[in-house]
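FORM 12-B: Structure-to-Sequence Request
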């Protein structure tokens, strides 16, 4: 079997960087120390938790006030909805009452109109009968007048033909004697 050879390379002469160290801490350690000091100062000196708590309390109070307003608005809206439903129901009842009243009034008007029509027809028939009766009486009176006139004319002719002056004297004398 053949021998195997392995080659390795090493680089020499490269620049080594040494980290600065202060009190046994490197740069990363000092960042942590600075952050820790900042947080401790913020907590104890600046009272950051109190400020954060106040801000959060203010937000909570604002949210509660908004929720209370929303509840009040919802209660008001529910009351308005109930009022609107009641008005709708009342309007529907009023509308049906108005329709029933209008139907009853229409029936009454129809009954009155029919009675009025019958009464008017009866009165007109009576007036027509009265006019016909008057016309009949007038025609009969005209016929009687014409008949009387014709009879008088005929009687005058008959008397004129049958009576002479001597007969007239006897009639006149008898009429005068009756007057006394």
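FORM 12-B RESPONSE
SEQUENCE OUT:
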């Amino acid at each position: 079997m053949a021998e195997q050879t392995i080659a390795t390379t090493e680089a020499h002469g490269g620049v080594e960087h040494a980290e600065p160290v202060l009190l046994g801490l490197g740069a990363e350690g000092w960042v942590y120390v600075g952050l820790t000091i900042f947080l401790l100062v913020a907590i104890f000196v600046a009272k950051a938790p109190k400020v954060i708590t106040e801000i959060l309390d203010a937000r909570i109070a604002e949210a509660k006030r908004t929720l209370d307003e929303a509840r009040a608005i919802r209660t008001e809206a529910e009351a308005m909805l109930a009022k609107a439903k009641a008005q709708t129901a009342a309007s529907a009842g009023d509308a049906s009452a108005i329709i029933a009243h209008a139907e009853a009034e229409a029936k009454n008007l129809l009954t009155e109109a029919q009675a009025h029509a019958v009464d008017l027809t009866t009165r007109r028939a009576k007036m027509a009968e009265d006019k016909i009766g008057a016309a009949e009486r007038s025609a009969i009176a005209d016929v009687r007048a014409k008949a009387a006139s014709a009879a008088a004319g005929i009687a005058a002719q008959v008397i004129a033909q049958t009576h002479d002056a001597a007969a007239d004297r006897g009639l006149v004398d008898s009429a005068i004697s009756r007057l006394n």
